[in-house]
Amino acid sequence: MPVQLLKIIKGESETPLPSHLQKEDLKCLQEGCDYTNKYFQGTVVLSYPLTKLRDGTDFFKVVLQDLNNSCSRINSINILIYGKMAEDCAKVIRHGDTFVVAGFKLAKSPTAREDGRHGCDLEVSEEAGSAIYIYTKRSTSAASETASVSVAPKYVYTPLNHLKDGTVVNLYGIVKFFKPPYVSKGTDYCSVVTLVDPSNAKLTCTLFSGNLDSLPKIYKIGDIVRFHRIKIREYNGQMQGITSGGFASLTFDGSVGAPVVPRTSSKLYTFLDEEQKTIEELRAWAASNLSISGPTAKLSGVQPMLFFDLTCQLVGKARVDGSSFLLKVWDGTKCPYPTWKVPVEARDLEGEKGLLQQLRNLTVDILVYDNHVQLAKSLKIGSFLRIYSIHTKQASADNQDVSHVEFHLHGGTCYGRGIGVLPESNPDVKELKAFLESVDLADSQNMESMSSVELDGIFSNVTDLQSHLQRCQQLSVTVLTDHQDLNNTGLKTILNSTAPQQYRIRAKLRTFKPQKLHQCIKLYCSKCNSLKEVPNGDDFDLILQDAAATAPNPELRNTSWYDSVMWTTQDQKQRKIAIHFVKHDEMLQEPEETLLMIEGGTLKEVWKLSRRFKCVIPVRSTEDDLELLDLSAPFLLQGSVKYYGCKQCSTPKTIKSLSSLAAEQRPSWEPTEIAQVLGIVPLQYVFIMKFTLVDGTGALNAYLFDYEKFFQIPASEILTNNFLQQKMQMTMNTLCPPGRKLDDLPWLECFIKSYNITDGMKHQVYYQIFDTTVAEDVV
Ligand SMILES: [Zn+2]
């Protein structure tokens, strides 16, 4: 029998190979040589399904790897088996078997360039006098029992708890979190997927590809993926997956009972019957072990101040400006709130005019930003989309009493924010299509204004980010920016150690103070180490009123370094105002480059000017020069930021000192430089918070003292910027979600340093967070 199974007993073959056969190395195989009495031995790494050639001959292909040559670039070869041997081999062969081929022929391999294997294929058939010996660790009887399983490339799948650094593996996983593909730096698409499996281990994979189609087609949390050839590396004690050459993926619906149909752009893939079972097992496991219902909603169910995923159809689109793009979509239901309409030029709006008009009461405008714009532009009208993590924002326009809701897809990819295109075959799309067809369009026309009646009291300030927090829960929400050499230390050990020292910790934020975030912004003098409250607008207003009582001194008008305008208000107060525009090279500058000084202005006037001009310095006249106001008022305004000086440490000079800066080649008007020439020691805006951290070994209070680094938000700008305030609120909600049990809080990795404070007889150790940043993706 040309195909023989040889049993291995105690590491040796029970029956030796015929003695006339000589072993040949992979690297010595050449076309044209006689291999009648030679044999080649390798390990089965791949086998294809048994097929029939056109003439009816059975054909079976296996790939053997030469383990002795595993370091060389080419270490595998295709074995093509014809005729009865093909059938016999297919019955018994298993992945990993040692396979011996004797008396073969070599032929140039037509696929060598693609498959990277040996330049020749090894051809085997009974007619050519070949023989095959298969060493198996199984008993021969077991092999014949499995003889009916004649299947193709056998891959080994590694459970997520068995991953090792530096390996390339195949695996299955259930999607716990994902970011739909987005254009990353450069031209590649990037997608991030966090997988779990019944081993309860977790793996986050970062997948890059120049081809959008080759990234997994994940539509929702709970989908199941199969990855082939994903590279595993260890980082910070955790395994991560990244794309390697030859990466391939299949994605399956994760719902129990759904058809097992892989989503892939590849036409060439293998999927075996037994893998169907794997999918079904994973579905069943996920159904009982994971909570994977995403925050999907219909437009009829949206809530203000929430985030949701929407499955919808694209009806229109328009460019708004360079960083935002408008999508008009519908899902057949009506949003219960008045929704905003993004103003765009009619000629910029793409879409079928008649349909846009017909659906005008059912479509909503979604404004997408930054990294989502490019993808949004490429979307086809009529396509079905799932838009992830849309922010429903309640807003009221200045001139309207009625609030409306706005839909934003903010920039970034946090919480999996993004846009996915669903194929028509997607079950959700099928359902949506059927529903859209059933919508009675005549009905919706009459619904136009019903919703504004219900407005009062509907809007509540619920900031329910729960479902999103769940997605972020397992990942560390902070990033360490230095000192990678420090190892984690338990809080108890830290509490029992002497100060000063530096540590790295992994802990949860049990609580923090102050809870009202605007209270955590203070002004700090680095010279005298004092902290002050940020003055409110009323103090400033009083100081300005007080200063306006002194009329501008006409002799201080139009000097060599500034031009002045003066006027008297027409109202009863007859207020005298002077504005001095600082010149550069004898010329006035563009407003956005200009520093001006104002006398006699009101709070509102000062604010208005500071929006338009680069720097505004409120001043008053003395007999021989202009001078700064009381230091409880800002000495400088730039945009919305007010700069204050330390009363204790500053010795203000007259305004003439500024002329030295104005004379510079290109005055930058940096606040620190202005402060310096004016004799001001500037106060810096800082975040000061007390974090109570816990890690299971103990609890520790650590101070956060931060200008910008931790939150990635400048402390100087947050008080006047609603967006930044929202961002910070959301960050804190992520770090320390209200109403969550300790177990459910996210982990924070931080650096903290201890230091001693002695106050009289009292000696205490304090802790401060440093060199730690909230992860970019958290908000
Ligand atoms: Zn000071």
UniProtKB/TrEMBL annotation:
Gene3D superfamilies: Nucleic acid-binding proteins. It comes from the Eukaryota. SMART domains: Telo_bind. It is found in: Chromosome, Telomere; Nucleus. InterPro entries: NA-bd_OB-fold, POT1, POT1_C_insert, POT1PC, Telomer_end-bd_POT1/Cdc13. Residues 157-287 form the Telomeric single stranded DNA binding POT1/Cdc13 domain. Keywords: Chromosome, DNA-binding, Nucleus, Telomere. PANTHER family: PROTECTION OF TELOMERES 1, PROTECTION OF TELOMERES PROTEIN 1. Belongs to the telombin family. This is Protection of telomeres protein 1. The gene is POT1.
